[in-house]
Amino acid sequence: MPYTIEEHKHRFSAWAAGRAANVIGCRFSVAQAKLILEISGLKQVLDSPNNLPLPHDIDTGHREWRTNVVAAATGQKLNFTHGVAAKLINIYLKAGFVCGGHHTDARVQALHPPIDSVLLAELSAQNVGGLRSSWDEARRIRWSKFDSQQYETVIDNIRISMPNQALWEVEQYWRGYQ
């Protein structure tokens, strides 16, 4: 089978996601992350932004993806929370679509950004959207421990804080690159 750009994008995105989502209390290999993404059906999504849910359906689609990722991880004898599943999904899709030149596509603009302690700390420090207490609450829970509702609350708060902007733009507050 020929080595295609689609396979190349999948491997890179799976590597990035597997490294980023790995956290104390939930350790796994990049190979396991790649397999979980494949079993959960996300590899096929990465082929085209047209495979993404419409913007108004993204939350429902993301909830299904998280459920599928948690189930696939369980099959690999791993215990993923919705926070870890979300980080794996969000980095995977960010690498493939947002950073892959599709950042202006409406479906890509609706994608959830990766959530981590660095982002939450800066959102709190800058009181983004006037929601410091909400960002602090999310920090206390810890992104890697989020259940589905806790994760979705953070995403809703990002939307409230940054109306009419692509969700990936919240990463202007992420200081992990420094």
Your description of this structure?
- It is a single chain.
- This protein is mainly alpha-helical and 178 residues long.
- It has nine helices and no strands.
- It has helices at residues 5-21, 30-39, 42-45, 58-75, 82-102, 106-109, 117-125, 132-141, 148-161.
- Helix 1 crosses helix 2, helix 2 (30-39) packs across helix 4 (58-75) and helix 4 (58-75) packs across helix 5 (82-102).
- The protein starts with a helix and ends in a 17-residue tail after the last helix.
User: Globular, elongated, flat, extended or rod-shaped: what is the shape?
Assistant: globular
Average pLDDT over all residues: 97
Question: Could you list the spans in which at least 5 consecutive residues all have pLDDT below 50?
Answer: none
Assembly context of the chains? single chain
SS summary, helix count: 9
Tally of individual domains: 2
Could you state the order of secondary-structure elements as H and E?
HHHHHHHHH
For the sheet with most strands, the description reads:
none
Beginning-to-end CA distance, first to last residue: 40 Å
